[in-house]
Design goal:
Elements (H helix, E strand, L loop, with lengths): L14 H4 L1 H10 L2 E6 L5 H11 L5 E5 L2 H15 L7 E4 L4 E2 L6 E5 H10 L8 E4 L7 H13 L7 E6 L4 H7 L10 E4 L6 E5 L20 H18 L5 E5 L3 H16 L7 E7 L5 H8 L7 E8 L12 E6 L2 E3 L2 E3 L4 E3 L2 E3 L2 H9 L7 E5 L3 H6 L14 H9 L16 H13 L7 H4 L9 H7 L5 H13 L2 H12 L11 H8 L8 H18 L2 H10 L4 H17 L20 H9 L6 E4 L14 H9 E4 L4 E4 L12 E4 L2 E3 L3 E3 L2 E3 L5 H5 L4 E10 L4 E10 L2 E10 L5 H14 L10 H24 L8 H9 L9 H14 L8 H4 L14 E4 L2 E8 L8 E7 L16 H13 L3 H4 L5 H11 L10 H13 L20 E5 L5 E5 L2 H7 L1 H13 L21 E3 L6 E4 L11 E5 L2 E11 L4 E6 L2 H19 L4 H6 L3 H8 L6 H20 L8 H42 L6 H14 ...
Parallel strand pairs: 1-7, 1-8, 2-5, 2-6, 3-5, 6-7, 9-18, 10-12, 10-13, 11-12, 13-18, 16-23, 21-24, 31-32
Antiparallel strand pairs: 3-4, 14-17, 15-16, 19-20, 19-22, 20-21, 22-25, 23-24, 26-27, 27-28, 29-30, 30-31, 32-33, 34-36, 35-38, 36-37, 37-38
Helix pairs in contact: 2-3, 3-4, 8-9, 13-14, 13-16, 16-17, 17-18, 17-23, 18-20, 18-22, 26-28, 31-33, 37-40, 39-41, 40-41, 40-43, 41-42, 41-43, 42-43, 43-45, 44-45, 44-46, 45-46
EC number: 3.6.4.13
Keywords: ATP-binding, Helicase, Hydrolase, Nucleotide-binding
Protein name: ATP-dependent RNA helicase HrpA
């Protein structure tokens, strides 16, 4: 209805009322008017009333915040004497208090933007007031740009832009006339009082240091800032009373400052008064926020100190503020075009923000503002804060522009043109969401983007594009109710509160809803719980429940309102909402919910990086590094982030996450997360994924070529490795691999197929094998034209569309009927010139005596088997002799001679150059068959001397210089033909496999059907071929306690596949009995049998040890009791064995008996002499032990740090002479010398103290001799089967010690270092 102008009253105390006439004229005469006024000037409430006086009856009044829209509408209605909803109404997101009679409609700028979709020309309004335009939000900038385009189409429309005194000229220039005349600016003074600004720069780094993007609480700068705040408060304590507003950059800084300020004032006297400290920031609970705006209840309050973020600059007015302390920093939301994330770095505030902060001190009286930075720093700061359009992603704006068909993004008249990179990133996000046609994100800089079906749907939802994409995908996944609830919860401020004094209780209450795998499901659990409680409880009870469970009731109600609004707006999308669960439990699969959410978060997924940052190949070295590495994620475009500590996933980070929000503070944090399978993103991303293929290879089992596919989404490997058929992406390469592997390299088995059709494969394989064996023997690679020739053969015949074995089999079954020989190769296809092989030069087997051994040839330089290998069955290995093998096969002998000639010393080599020609001469002089009695080098040296008269010896050849393929290799195989060992040194191979070869020989001669090894191609020993006895045979036995044989043969033979297997029966001592074993060599038999015979003689002879033990003298008992044996009886038993061994050796020096007659004769002789021999042996042993005890006492007495080395040598000598079993080990003949050796030790130690230098010199000679002994293979004590030369030298060493250290005792024979060297040679 028309306004009654006479009823409108303008409060005279407001500055805007004094300039009403000027403002009225400007509005009447101009289409756009800029009104600039400081806070408190009255422009917000009085301008709509001025418009009413001009007859404007459809006034739209926008506000940046919902709370401001409601309170302003109430204030204007009160001044007009009207109810809200009549002449004055308002509309915010969930509330519409406007009617058909409404003349002034106050709304948020977002409401007006949504109305543009239904009313492109905004004909509903004749006047639009854009309030608080200086805040330069994204909505305000877009609205101002749209209104500029609307002005020519609506000449009747009046636009009024109100702003603080911050750069009003920019708005005037934006709405300039076509001739360039700017819109008029009317400046209105505010109701402010003088504010004294004091600069108190910090003693550390100035505010310039706060521009870092990475300022962590607790650093030196923060401590300096807190110190500066405390100093400012002390300074203000000297001023008149009044509350203090302290501006800080963030919540953590406020908490640190709160603790410091409380501690600062806690020690003041009672007369000083009480100081109340109140924090104020966005995440604070409503109750804690209201404490700042309500009268205090603290008794004796002297001053309030409010610690606030920049929320108190313009958004909220804190009453009673007289003083301001400005730290000069704030967290400014900025979009990073590089990382594609929203950042919240701490930055130095602009001059305009600093003035806004200081202005808060002059609202009610004169005030003081203390800035914790210098005036020079203030002057260097930017004049204004960057508008939001330069600091945020533009996807939502671009989406709305596209839906309104506003043309090119870059041509739109924004107040401040957006950064081209921001436009590109906004288009990129819309492309990621599938909202614009593919490719438009790169072309939209020059033309308007075109919306897809999804983009059109997104433009109708009043939420962020990412959230809208989730809602659309929820229909496909069947989880619309759950996703709408989660999206609504993400859009509002978190309803969960954590009061400062009850944080623990709040956390425990909220933990009931926590899902360890997903913050989204945690939010959904809370939603389900609230829905159940809302149905069960009345309004008041529900409100009380929210308070008890630390939930903000207003935010919960806002959550429900937004959910209902989204449900209504989503109806055109055809969403199906399942009913809520009655018990509050889950109604949908969590994976389906997460897949729907993932559709909007494709560029916000991350994979956990378990490596240490900055060291890709280094593994974590300690627990701290492992924890840091395990918390970091690799995200899109190379970004790295960590899960926010408040997330339920923070304690146990999963392998992959998606995040609703990536925000950079001290580092890049993911704030709302869920564990996901990254492969879910592949079908959602469509053409956004980048696929790469690696490791193309042939899979014989699948019968086709395969490759590994890697799928990247914005650089994140969502599918790190997946196998696929190569023919799907590269059929030519798949066909090539099929031919090379299946046909050329024969990695395809056609044996189970019809051989009448597929017999070509068998024939080709046989032909290739025949030619390949000739190449290996002759060491040539020119017989075959090679694999490329075979490939070309098949490539010319196999069709282009055949790339798998299945496809090949299908094709060939039809083609073979017409051309059966199409794929059968001939020698002419593979060999350019016919080459004949000399089979005598490269024989298939080697003969040594009656043995035939298979030869294998290999032509592969660098391989251990390159050259000729003799394949030796284990049963034949022991009898093989090295002689003759060094002659090589005839085909390689000339090359061997050439190599040996080049291995001669230069002086000799001059007589046989050129080497190749001399090699031919020498080979011609060599005998036809190898001479196994002498080394080949000796034969060759003899020929060289004969032909050149040059003195040359076999030792002149440097065999290390001879190529490896010219040395014969020996490979031992078991009865199944499996390799069990190999070496170029036959003796070394025999020693390494002595035990196994002995077992194989015995098995072949005793087991039915036993076998000795695999032979060569029809000749030599064959697996499973039975061995037939030749001559006498004798079975193996164990547990034998008496002589049971009339005669033990010297050896037993058997033939197996034409080869002779020979074994040597031996009697082996098992302790309480003996065994008859078939050993592989006579040396093994000769070493084992004497000990076995000795044991049988001991078992056949009554033991005198009990009698001897009873008749020992006391001195003998004392001496024997100190022996190293476990008991005296054990010692006497060992003496008995030594006595028997002495008698056996007297009668049979080799210790071997073959017949029963021989054994009985030795047994009788032992029985007659054993008592006396044992008595004599005990006496000698007692003397030895007595001498050993005396030597040990002398060593103990002479113990000194300076004599450690010689005394240690003496102790080692005693240990080598007297040890468990030493009597039988040394024998009675040698036992009589041991006492002398031990006496020599005693005398050496006695002289050592007087002349250690002389002892040291003699010890050097002993050590030289001992080294010769050990280098020859000797050890102390010697094993029982030691060679005779080592036994002799072992006792020569003892005689040498006597001659050097106790010469007066005399030696058994002449001894010296040269004699020892000669004995070893």
């Amino acid at each position: 209805m028309p306004a009654n102008v006479d009823e409108i009253v303008f409060p005279p105390e407001l500055p805007v009322s004094a300039q009403r006439g000027e403002i009225t004229d400007a509005i009447r005469d101009h289409q756009v008017v800029i009104v600039a006024g400081a806070t408190g000037s009255g422009k917000t409430t009085q301008l709509p009333k001025i418009c009413l006086t001009l007859g404007r009856t459809s006034i739209g009044h926008t506000q940046p915040r919902r709370l401001a829209a409601r309170t302003i509408a109430e204030r204007i209605a009160e001044e007009l004497g009207s109810e809200v909803g009549d002449r004055v109404g308002y509309q915010v997101r969930f509330t519409d208090k406007a009617s058909a009679s409404t003349e002034i409609k106050v709304m948020t700028d977002g409401i007006l933007l949504n109305e543009i979709h239904r009313d492109r020309l905004l004909r509903k309004y004749d006047t639009i007031i854009v309030d608080e335009a200086h805040e330069r939000s994204l909505n305000i900038d877009f609205l101002l740009g749209y209104l500029k385009t609307l002005l020519p189409k609506r000449p009747d429309l009046k636009i009024i832009v109100t702003s603080a005194t911050i750069d009003p000229e920019r708005f005037a220039a934006h709405f300039a006339e076509p001739d360039g005349t700017p819109a008029p600016i009317i400046e209105v003074s505010g109701r402010t009082y003088p504010v004294e600004v004091r600069y108190r720069p910090l003693t550390g780094d100035d505010a310039e240091g706060a521009t870092s993007d990475d300022v962590d609480p607790g650093t030196d700068d923060d401590r300096d800032a807190i110190t500066g705040i405390l100093g400012a408060l002390d300074e203000l304590d000297r001023e008149a009373s009044g509350d203090v507003l302290v501006f800080l950059s963030g919540e953590q800084e406020i908490r640190d400052a709160e603790d410091a300020v409380r501690g600062h004032y806690s020690g003041r006297s009672a007369g000083y008064g009480t100081t109340e400290v109140l924090p104020l920031y966005g995440r604070l609970s409503s109750a804690d926020q209201h404490r700042v705006f309500e009268p205090t209840s603290v008794v004796g309050l002297r001053r309030r100190i409010v610690l606030a973020t920049n929320v108190a600059e313009t958004s909220l007015t804190v009453p009673g503020i007289k003083y301001v302390v400005d730290a000069g920093t704030a967290r400014i939301s900025r979009y990073s075009a590089r990382a594609k994330v929203q950042r919240l770095p701490i930055e130095a505030i602009s001059q305009a923000s600093a003035n806004q902060r200081s202005g808060r001190a002059g609202r009610t009286s004169d005030g003081i503002a203390i800035r914790l930075y210098s005036e020079e720093d203030f002057e260097r700061r930017p004049e204004y804060t960057d508008p939001e359009i330069l600091r945020t992603n533009l996807a939502a704006v671009i989406l709305q522009m596209a839906s309104l068909d506003l043309g090119e993004v870059t041509a739109f008249p924004f107040l401040t043109p957006p950064d081209p990179r921001g436009v590109t990133d906004g288009l990129g996000l819309l492309g990621e969401l599938g909202a614009i046609e593919v490719g438009d994100e790169t072309a939209a800089r020059s033309r308007a983007p075109r919306l897809t079906r999804i983009g059109t749907q997104l433009s109708r939802l009043p939420i962020e594009p990412r959230f809208g994409r989730m809602v659309i995908e929820s229909k496909t996944q069947g989880v619309s109710r759950e996703v709408l609830a989660i999206v609504a919860g993400l859009t509002i401020q978190d309803p969960r509160e954590r009061p400062l004094e009850r944080r623990g209780e709040a956390d425990a209450m909220h933990a009931r809803f926590a899902d360890p795998t997903s913050d989204f499901l945690t939010l959904l659990n809370l939603w389900n719980h609230l829905e159940v409680k809302q149905r069960e409880l009345g309004s008041s009870a529900f409100r009380r429940m929210c308070k008890q469970e630390f939930l903000n009731y207003l935010r919960v109600r806002e959550w429900h309102d937004l959910f209902r609004q989204l449900v209504g707006l989503s109806k055109p999308l055809g969403l199906k909402l399942l009913p809520a669960p009655a018990d509050g439990g889950a109604t949908a699969a969590p994976d389906a919910v997460h897949r729907a959410l993932l559709s909007g978060l494709l560029s916000q997924i991350g994979l956990r990086d378990d490596r240490v940052s900055g060291e890709p190949k280094a593994q974590p070295k300690n627990r701290g590094e492992r924890q840091r590495a395990g918390r970091e994620y690799l995200g899109a475009r190379g970004t790295r982030f960590q899960v926010f500590p408040g997330s339920t996933l923070a304690k146990k980070p999963p392998q992959a996450v998606m995040s609703a929000e990536l925000v950079e503070t001290s580092r890049l944090f993911a704030r709302m997360n869920a564990s996901i399978d990254p492969a879910w993103a592949e079908p959602l991303a469509g053409d956004l994924v980048k696929r790469s293929y690696s490791e193309p290879r042939w899979d014989a089992r699948a019968g086709s070529a395969v490759a590994d596919e890697k799928v990247l989404l914005f650089g994140v490997p969502i599918v790190p490795k997946r196998r696929l058929q190569l023919a799907r992406v590269n059929e030519p390469l798949a066909r090539e691999l099929f031919i090379r592997h299946a046909l050329v390299q024969r990695e395809w088995d056609p044996s189970k197929l019809d051989q009448r059709v597929f017999g070509f494969a068998r024939k080709n394989t046989a032909l290739l094998g025949e030619l390949a064996s000739i190449e290996e023997r002759t060491r040539r690679r020119d017989l075959l034209l090679g694999d490329e020739t075979v490939f070309a053969f098949y490539d010319a015949r196999v069709p282009a569309d055949v790339s798998t074995t299945r496809g090949f089999e299908r094709w060939w079954r039809g083609a073979a009927r017409a051309t059966p020989d199409l794929l059968t190769m001939t020698r002419a296809d593979l060999v350019p010139d016919e080459a004949e092989e000399d089979r005598t030069a490269y024989p298939a087997e080697w003969r040594q005596g009656d043995q035939r051994l298979r030869l294998e040839y290999r032509f592969e330089p660098g391989h251990p088997d390159d050259g000729v290998s003799v394949v030796v069955p284990l049963v034949l290995l022991p009898r093989l002799e090295p002689g003759g093998f060094d002659w090589q096969v005839p085909g390689l002998r000339a090359e061997l001679v050439t190599a040996l000639l080049r291995a001669l010393p230069k002086v000799i080599r001059r007589s046989v150059v050129p080497a190749a020609e001399w090699a031919d001469k020498l080979v011609a002089e060599l005998p036809a068959e190898p001479d196994a009695t002498r080394p080949f080098t000796a034969t060759l040296a003899h020929l060289i001397r004969k032909l050149t008269y040059t003195p040359v010896d076999a030792s002149d050849f440097d065999l290390e210089r001879v190529p490896a393929h010219l040395r014969m290799h020996f490979r031992a195989v078991d009865e199944r033909g499996k390799r069990v060992g190999g070496d170029d040194d036959l003796r070394a191979l025999q020693a390494a496999l002595a035990g196994r070869s002995t077992e194989a020989v015995a098995r072949s001669l005793t087991e039915p059907g036993g076998s000795g090894g695999r032979g060569a191609r029809g000749r030599g020993p064959q697996p499973g071929a039975p061995a037939s006895a030749v001559g006498p045979s004798i079975p193996e036995r164990s547990g034998v306690t008496a002589w049971e044989w009339d005669r033990i043969p010297e050896y037993v033979d058997a033939r197996q596949a034409g080869n002779l297997i020979r074994a040597y029966p031996a009697i082996v001592d098992d302790g309480a009995s003996v065994s008859l074993r078939l050993l592989a060599t006579p040396a093994d038999r000769d070493a084992a049998t004497p000990r076995g015979i000795r044991r049988l003689l001991a078992l056949a002879t009554p033991s005198p040890t009990s009698y001897v033990q009873e008749h020992l003298t006391n001195q003998e008992k004392l001496a024997l009791g100190a022996s190293p044996y476990p008991s005296t009886k054990a010692l006497l038993d060992d003496v008995l064995l030594a006595a028997i061994d002495a008698e056996l050796r007297r009668l049979h020096p080799d210790g071997l008996l073959a017949t029963r007659v021989e054994f009985d004769a030795v047994r009788d002789a032992v029985s007659q002499t054993v008592m006396d021999a044992v008595y004599a042996g005990v006496a000698q042993t007692a003397a030895v032990l007595t001498a050993a005890r005396a030597a040990e006492k002398a060593i103990t007495k002479a113990s000194s740090i300076q004599l450690m080395a010689p005394l240690a040598d003496a102790r080692a000598q005693i240990a080598g002479l007297v040890f468990p079993g030493f009597v039988s080990a040394v024998g009675l003949e040698r036992l009589r010398h041991l006492a002398r050796y031990l006496q020599a030790i005693e005398r050496r130690v006695g002289r050592l103290v007087d002349n250690p230098g002389r002892d040291r010199a003699r010890l050097v000679e002993v050590e030289q001799a001992t080294k010769l002994f050990t280098d020859a293979g000797g050890v102390i004590p010697l094993p029982q089967d030691a060679p005779e030369r080592l036994v002799r030298v072992r006792w020569l060493l003892e005689e040498l010690r006597v001659s050097l250290f106790a010469q007066e005792l005399g030696t058994a024979e002449t001894v010296s270092l040269p004699r020892i060297r000669k004995a070893l040679s």
